[in-house]
Structure formats: C-alpha cells, structure tokens
Amino acid sequence: MLTTDCTPGRVALLIRFGRANLLLRVYLRIRESYKTRDMFIIPRSTANGLEEISRDVATDLLPRGECNLWLHLDAPTDEELRFLQEKLKIHPLTLEDIVQQNQRPKIEPFEDYVYLAIHPLQRKAKWEIEPTELDLLLGRNWIVSAHYGPLPGLIENSHLHERIPRALARGADFCLYTLVDLVVDSYFPIMDDIEDEIDSLEDQLLLRANSVDMNGLLALKRSIVQIRRAVTPQREVLNQLTRHDFPFVRPENLVYFRDVYDHLIRITEELDSIRDILSSLLEIHLAAISNQLNITMKRLAAWGTIFVVITAVAGIYGMNFKFMPELEWRYGYFAVLGFMAVLSVGLFFYFKKRGDL
C-alpha cells in the first residue's frame, strides 16, 4: 500500500506489501487485489483526496528521488524478494539473511543501501519471551522492513500510525530511526512487568522466605536472558551507527540514533540490576529451603532420640530371661511406664529448650 503525507516541496510515500492487516487504517482505504499482481492498486493521498496508482508507478518514483517510500514485507514471497533484487538492487546475501531469519543484530553497509537486523521481543506467555527478527534496508529515499510472524510492539502499535507519516516527510533515515525507536520502546513495558514481579517476589520473601515459586523464579530468569540476548548486540549496532559514517544516514539525524542508544544502555543497566536481584532472591529462596530442611531434620532427630530411649527400656524388659527381679514385683509394670514417661518428658523439654522441637 502507498500513501502520502503532503508537505511543502516534498511528498512522503508509504508502500506496504501485505495480505492481512492494514497498516495505517486512519489514512488508507485499500482495494486488495493481491492475487493479481499486475492489477495491484495503491491508494495515494493528495491535496484533492485519494487517488489510485499502480505498483509500477510507485516503481517509477524510486529512481526519481521525489518522494520517500517505506515498503513493509510481512512474510515476503518470492515475487516480493525478486522485486527487491531487481528494482532496489538488494544483494542476494542480504535476501538470504532476510529469508533465513537467524541473524544476530548487525549493521552492514552496501553500495546502494544499509542493512540492519534488529530483534523485537515477542511475548508468547506471561514469562515466555522470545526475540524475533526485523530486517531493515535503508536506501537514499526509501526504506524496507521485512519480518515473519506478528510484531505487536511495532506494526500493531498505535504510535506507529501517528509517527510514520511525519517521519517519512523528514526522510527515509528518520523513518529508520522511528522504527528502531518503536522497537526499543516496546522493551520498556516488559521491563516494567518484570520489575513489578520482582517487587512481588521480594514481598513474599519478607513474609515467608520459602513461599516463592521456584518455577516462576526460573522462568523470570530465562526471560532476562532472552531480553539481554536481544539488547546487548543491538547496543553495539546503534553504537556503530552513531560513530561511523554510514551512507544514507544524514549527520543531523545521528542525534536521534544516539537517543535510542542511550535507551539501550539504560535497559542493559536495568537488566544487570534485575539479574543481580534475581540471583539474590534465588539464593535466599534456596537458603530458606535448606534451612527449613535442617529444622525438619533436627525435629526428626529429637523425636527419634526420645523414642529410641523408651524403646531401649521396653526392649530390656521384653527379654525372656527367667531371673529378672522386676518381673516378680507387683508394681514393676507401672514403675517402668512411669520411668519411661518421665524420661520422655524430660528429653522433650531438653530438646525444646535447645530449639530442636
């Protein structure tokens, strides 16, 4: 799809190849004829309203440099990949990286474009967080984004609908900043949820140290590892982008990328702090369980000692010897029971005073 954000002297255009959701519902009405690619119709916003142009017309606009274009590929098809290779001169190795979806965050300059791979985070369950891959291609007056699967923190983000038209009006590199910034901003709600969960765990530890769910702690720790795996290399990517002269990134826009880099540093520091807190909570939890086990063993040992003593007395008088004076005593049975009771009570209070019971 393609639309314009009309500004004096320059027109900002947006293209999206997709088969499902409309990207900018506020700005666009699209007549989907995706199955007949030669009839692919794109609405364009102008001063007179909406007019429709074909994809071929959009292709003709690329070399003229009169507009900024964003092409968004949701699970790109072979035809879409051929379009990138033939019309935008995308290198086959870059297309291979996009299709395989196994790249760690990186940035690579080419003659006609700059390739970035970044990792948005996808939350499949409460603490089941996995990084996904978003590939970005920046040209002189165009930007391409490609991904497989949902991106709720980006494509379905309401802020994207507000920011993209203005971003395209300021250039393709500013649109790149907007996309990267939205990806990084999507980390903060997850970080806030993790911090709230840690606060809850700390409150539980204050009330009862062994009441914390071990599975929850480990799941939270795995989430931290996944987030750190996405954030740490992206910090290096943004550091390279702000410190080196990459083509198609204007110097006046580097300050915005430095702002994103600062956000990643802040997230990394928070991750380090959260990881230390989680390690402390895990150690406290394990120590509490070990301490509870020791208390239980002490109690069992104390009760075992009591019953061993009275069992020994009962065993002595249970022997079948003929000559045992107490067996002939009239009150011998009651005396032995009384002795065993006094001995048991005495041992009980002795262990109770020691704190074993």
- Mean pLDDT equals 76
CATH homologous superfamily designation of the largest domain: CorA soluble domain-like
CATH fold annotation of the largest domain: Beta Polymerase, domain 2
CATH architecture of the largest domain: 2-Layer Sandwich
Given helix and strand content, the structural type is alpha+beta
**Order of strands, widest sheet:** 1-2-5-11-10-7-6
Order of helices and strands: EEEEHEHHEEEEEEHHHHHH
Q: Give the overall silhouette.
A: rod-shaped
Into which percentage range does the β-strand content fall? 15-25%
Tally of structural domains: 2
Helix content range: 40-55%
Distance between the termini: 75 Å
Q: Low-confidence spans: pLDDT under 50, at least 5 residues?
A: 1-13, 15-53
Number of helices: 9
CATH class of the largest domain: Alpha Beta
Strand tally, please?
11
Largest sheet, strands/sense/barrel: 7 strands, mixed
Radius of gyration: 35 Å
Descriptive account of the structure:
It is built from nine helices and eleven strands. It is of the alpha+beta class and 357 residues long. The protein folds into two domains: 2-286, 2-Layer Sandwich (Beta Polymerase, domain 2), CATH 3.30.460; 290-354, Methane Monooxygenase Hydroxylase, Chain G, domain 1 (Up-down Bundle), CATH 1.20.58. The strands form three sheets. A seven-stranded mixed beta sheet has the order 1-2-5-11-10-7-6, sandwiched between helices. It has a two-stranded antiparallel ribbon with strand order 3-4. Strands 8-9 form a two-stranded antiparallel sheet.
